[in-house]
Amino acid sequence: METYSWLEFLENYVFYYPLAMSIVWMMGASYFYLRRERGEKQVPELKEYPLVSVLIPARNEEDAIRSTVEAVLTSEYPNFEIIVLDDASTDSTAAIIQEIEANEERVRVLLLNKNVGKPSALRYGALASRGDILLCIDADAYLDPWAMHWMVSHFNGPRVGAVTGNPRVRNRTSLLAKIQVGEYSSIIGMIKRTQRILGKVLTVSGVIAAFRKQAIFDAGLWDTDMITDDINITWKLEKRFWDIRYEPNALCWILVPETVSGLWRQRVRWAQGGVEVVRRHRDIWKSWKQRRLWPVYLEYVLSIIWSYVFILLGIVGLVNLTYPTGLPEVRIFPEWKGSMLAFICLLQFLIGLTIDQKYEKSIPGYLFWVIWYPFAYWLLTALATVYAAPRALFRKMGQPAVWTSPDRGIFTKL
């Protein structure tokens, strides 16, 4: 009887946790939209235009780097420099950057002789930069011409340490890519809006984030041994009481994985990076001053536990189908619960896509594709977390986190 009660408890946890978080995200994102996004907003007029140093770390990005740099050069912001950080590329990336540098005075290149990883490259870029604001983007990103205006406008507050932008998927030819279009709108965007309302953002978007240089140095720069630089630097800044903001008008067009293997590697890296941050910053529980980070920390730990329980119950269910164990039937989404969760997910997707219609008129059309998210991505994300958590917990820290070029999908232009 005791075993049965535990199974029932775990079954309810698998159901109620995503249900509760979906409701929180819908409420938070709706409030953020009504309070800060609704209505037409003009590009902010700035009293001054501080120099922005755009840092672009790159390794083996010969297919993407030229168009990325050219997109930044079309920015309407009048005062910026571009520093491309070539992390010992083995293709023609360095040659392409040097060609651009020879013809464009706003572009500089730092050639690293050894593959040291993205965090180390960003450290070099921060030291070489001349601007008071550092805008970090990925080597496959197309920056919107007005993105810098929107991001710089937040730094009029003295305690603003970073501003994260709004990544938009630009390759939409495959089912995986189309689902991710909806994911960035209905999941990632809604979470960032909610966390901003609650006061603490789990992570900036590594593909587009602006930092106050003073804050970056105050936090000790990027840690070179972390798999994901964006989550860790966010926590380092917030532990130093710098404010992190989300600016949905700061658009950046990105490529997402379009193969299962590429998506798997991306989600394993995200999961491992998140667990590494949980491991490194567990000292926040020792200080009452860090209490505003406790809910963010706890929610992430609960999501890790959910992944393990979800996979465990799935295994028990499969075993019950093939071999009688004597355990009761495991129903992850039984009877009315499955219908309720499906309805809440659909409502969340509808709200997220409706909010993002302000930035893409055609985005509600992706509702048909994003409804497949719970079936495919919940399982993939859970498996990635179960696989990555032990790697993060038992990984020997201190060694530089080097990188390989991710799956960029089908390379397309806007």
TrEMBL record:
Write out the transmembrane intervals.
Answer: 15-34, 296-318, 338-355, 367-389
Please state the Enzyme Commission number of this protein: 2.4.1.-
Tell me which UniProt keywords the record has, alphabetically.
Answer: Cell membrane, Glycosyltransferase, Membrane, Transferase, Transmembrane, Transmembrane helix
Q: Which InterPro entries match?
A: Nucleotide-diphossugar_trans (IPR029044), PGA_PgaC/IcaA (IPR023853)
Q: What is its main location?
A: membrane
What's its membrane topology? Answer: Multi-pass membrane protein
- Single Gene Ontology MF annotation: glycosyltransferase activity
Q: Would the keyword Cell membrane turn up in this protein's UniProt record?
A: yes
Q: Which stretches are annotated as coiled coil?
A: none
Instruction: List, alphabetically, the Gene3D superfamilies matched.
Output: Spore Coat Polysaccharide Biosynthesis Protein SpsA, Chain A
| Catalytic class of the enzyme | transferase
UniProt entry tagged with the keyword Transferase: yes
What domain of life? Answer: Bacteria
Compartment list: Cell membrane
Q: Which family does it belong to?
A: Belongs to the glycosyltransferase 2 family.
| PANTHER family from the UniProt entry | POLY-BETA-1,6-N-ACETYL-D-GLUCOSAMINE SYNTHASE
Q: What is this protein called?
A: Poly-beta-1,6-N-acetyl-D-glucosamine synthase
Q: Which gene encodes it?
A: pgaC_1
